[in-house]
Amino acid sequence: MPFSSLSHIQERLNNAETTAVEVAQLYLNRIAAYNDTLNAFVHIDSAHVLAQAEASDKYRAEHGARALEGLPIAIKDIFCTQHGPTQCCSNILKDFHAPYDAHVITKLKEAGAVLVGKTNMDEFAMGSSNETSAFGLCRNPWNTDCIPGGSSGGSAVAVAAALTPAALGTDTGGSIRQPASLTGITGLKPTYGRVSRRGIIAFASSLDQAGPMTRTVKDAAMITAAIAGHDSGDATSVADAPGPQSQADWLAVCDQKDMKGMRIGVPKEYFVEGMDADVRVQVEAALKQCEALGAELVDISLPNTNLAVAAYYVIAPSEASANLSRYDAVRFGHRCDNPEDLLDMYTRSRDEGFGSEVKRRILTGAFALSSGYYDAYYLKAQQVRTMIQQDFLTAFESVDIIATPTSPITAFKLGEKTDDPLTMYLSDIYTIAVNLAGLPGLSQPCGFAHDLPVGLQWIAPAWREDVLLGAASAYEATSHWYNKTPQAFDQPSGGET
Amino acid sequence: MDIDVQKVAMLARIRLTDDEATELGPQLSEILGYVDQLAAVNTDGIVPTAHPHDAAMPLRANIVTNGNHRDALQAVAPKTEAGLYVVPKVIE
Questions:
Q1: Mind listing the domains of chain A with CATH numbers?
Q2: Which 3 state secondary structure label does DSSP give A373?
Q3: In terms of DSSP bridges, do strands A72-76 and A41-43 run parallel, antiparallel, or are they unpaired?
Q4: Rounded to whole angstroms, how far apart are CA atoms A29 and A248?
Q5: Looking at chain B, which residue has its C-alpha nearest residue A349?
Q6: Cβ-Cβ contacts under 8 Å, A313 against chain B
Q7: In this structure, what are the phi and psi dihedrals at residue A20, rounded to the nearest 5 degrees?
Q8: Average pLDDT in the A471-492 region?
Q9: Do the chains contact at B48 and A385, CB–CB below 8 Å?
Q10: Fewer CB within 10 Å of terminal CB in chain A, N or C?
Q11: A381 touches B: beta carbon within 8 Å
Q12: pLDDT tens digits, residue range A301-322?
């Protein structure tokens, strides 16, 4: 049961073979047994989890089941929740309690989900390895000497080690897809504007998007359907998205498991030097399998791919420096002791509260936006962003979907890249362009290299999550990678036999 | 590129210790050196992205919907008094 998919647990609940309380208790036991090793969760309130599960069982008995009735979902520490702390794994928000729920949290509650704790992450989602968290590093269950990826590292690990069947993450430059890839699970970043950002602590507002991290493609569809939709509190969430978008449509696509006749674009710029040879073998084997399933592989070019990381590291830090100016030690967050004057209070509180990666990004952004540099950096980067978007639009004239590796490498060793920020930035080289273009992307497991998971990334046109889900579920149906479990953590109930 | 780290840090209202400034200086130079490859790209006539999907801003009725939550919002403030935020003295 612990490694069951969300939809399998749902089936058992619907058949009265188990209860939400039993399910919640099972995962709480596993968290108690394994979290000390993995540090996937930074906050757990068992009594609150069980109370939600009890309420869900009662609701089911009285009114019938809602879309996610009784299903446990872990929450990245970036989502504001009225219950318990919301700290974004930063000391500047230490012990912060949000006065309201993020819109997606409200949606999950309305769907009957049981929210399980807060998961570890890179501080303010700035990182690719979960090593910038103020609350300690997080370990990859496939090899505990390795990073889990980031920034949604805790959510990825919680799902990969079955401390929860599903989790919510956010993705600004790959923060759902890259850790999903490195831990062997499925992660979906919806189209920009599909999901409300209200109550999600802002990093780079034109790139941020929330999405599910799950064991299967269908589970990802279930959660995306539950959290999608316009919110009057987020002007960038879109009211009239074109294409199929109801829960029924997306789940039906997952059940069809069909990619016959699908034209899959394979961009040559994503299969280049710097990519691990063993990763390449796995991804190419997966593409061959898609061909065997009736899809057609089409060589395409996305010529401005090599500019994506540079554009991103102007745009994201610029937006971050503006967003993080709100941490002024006045309305919330850390305030230093005995400030001499207002300026001393601002500067010292922010120095004490922010970690070094966050400072690096704020300073990069402040520089790029400063007088005399705006045109050369920010404006230029937004023009290059238009070119990258145009590349995708052109490609989608001749293909239905694009397939690439999610990450050029498998999970690296803890500490290996912490001294070299630029090399760390380059680990998101295959995921960043998708955020710049605002497209939906999905990573799913497609093999192993060096005994660590490898991810396959799907990229679809804007608003075509249905195409992503169709391709990914068809591939999943004929592969067994999503079913693999990390041996050290596969005892049924937390080590006891 | 040489960057006056302390000046940028002051713009961002972050006090850096000398050690931090010494470490961050070369790192910022390296990051900005990498993004400088954008300068070589011909972007003549390219419209900068404002929104990924060029979506129109939705409109809503101009009515108050969120009520008064002063107490809840101030409960998380470092220091308040009589419904006001307290900060170090600004005016002599």
A1: 6-306+384-489 (3.90.1300.10)
A2: coil
A3: unpaired
A4: 33
A5: B14
A6: 31, 34-35
A7: -60, -35
A8: 92
A9: yes
A10: C
A11: yes
A12: 999 999 999 999 999 999 999 9
Overall average pLDDT of the A29-52 stretch: 98
Domains of chain B are: 1-41 (1.10.20)
HSE-CB for A475 with a 13 A CA cutoff:
33
User: Both tokens of residue A164?
Assistant: 């929860």
Long-range contacts, A379-382 (Cβ 8 Å, 24+) = A379/B48, A380/A314, A380/B38, A380/B39, A380/B41, A380/B43, A381/A310, A381/A311, A381/A314, A381/A315, A381/A318, A381/B35, A381/B38, A382/A311, A382/A315, A382/B48, A382/B49, A382/B50
> What is the three-class DSSP state of B18?
helix
Which band of pLDDT confidence, cut at 50, 70 and 90, is reported for residue A244? low
Check if the beta carbon of residue A185 is closer than 8 Å to that of residue A156: yes
pLDDT of the residue at A245: 64
Active site residue A349: no
CA angle A431, A236, A155 (to 5 degrees): 45
pLDDT band at A44 (very low <50, low <70, confident <90, very high): very high
pLDDT in tens, A342-364: 999 999 999 999 999 999 999 99
pLDDT at A497: 35
Residues 6+ apart with CB under 8 A from A77: A42, A43, A86, A87, A88, A89, A118, A119, A120, A121, A154
Cβ pair A157, A122 in contact under 8 A:
no
Please identify which residue in the block is written with the tokens 């400072």: A359
Query: Which of B38, B81, B89 has the highest number of chain A CBs within 10 A, making it the mutation to test binding with A?
Result: B38
Over residues A140-194, the pLDDT tens digits come to 999 999 999 999 999 999 999 999 999 999 999 999 999 999 999 999 999 999 9
The count of CB pairs under 8 A between chains A and B is 176
pLDDT average, residue stretch B59-82: 90
Cα–Cα distance measured from residue A468 to residue A211, given in angstroms and rounded to the nearest whole number: 14
User: Nearest CB to B49: which of A193, A340, A386?
Assistant: A386
Percent of chain A past pLDDT 90, that is, above it, reads 90
